[in-house]
Protein: glutamate synthase (ferredoxin)
Organism: Teladorsagia circumcincta
Amino acid sequence: MVAHNGEINTLRGNINLMRAREGVMSSTLYEDDLVKLYPVVEEGLTDSGCFDNVCEFLVKAGQRSLPEAAMTMVPEAWEKDEEMDHEKRAFYRWAAMAMEPWDGPALLAFCDGRYVGAILDRNGLRPARYYLTADDHLYLSSEVGVNDHDEATIVKKVRT
């Protein structure tokens, strides 16, 4: 579900707070069987594995879309962005109360067969670039030169 470049510097705190929540979480989908999904974060995983565990839990048990789960875990620097749309700001305000951010420096890419996306943590210290080609392929990387492309086939090229 998730690919990751960087590191999650807040990992220990994120894991501890996720475990603390397990005693009060509920799910209309799983009801009393929700406890069978605990611990949400498996022991011995890398920061990418831990992030994936929580993201998948939010999608499956929390019934959120993959982009919503990613935006909840890795919010933009929204608090002082006066140009941000009101609905998006309201989402981030809610997310800030629901979960603490998973901060990097990190670039996280996600895909579930319906959605594909990428998100930079709010510090923005990891580079990200993507190419969209005429044959509807999307290439995302944090470095230049990962793939050789004929410039004539590139429809869109973005660096963040």
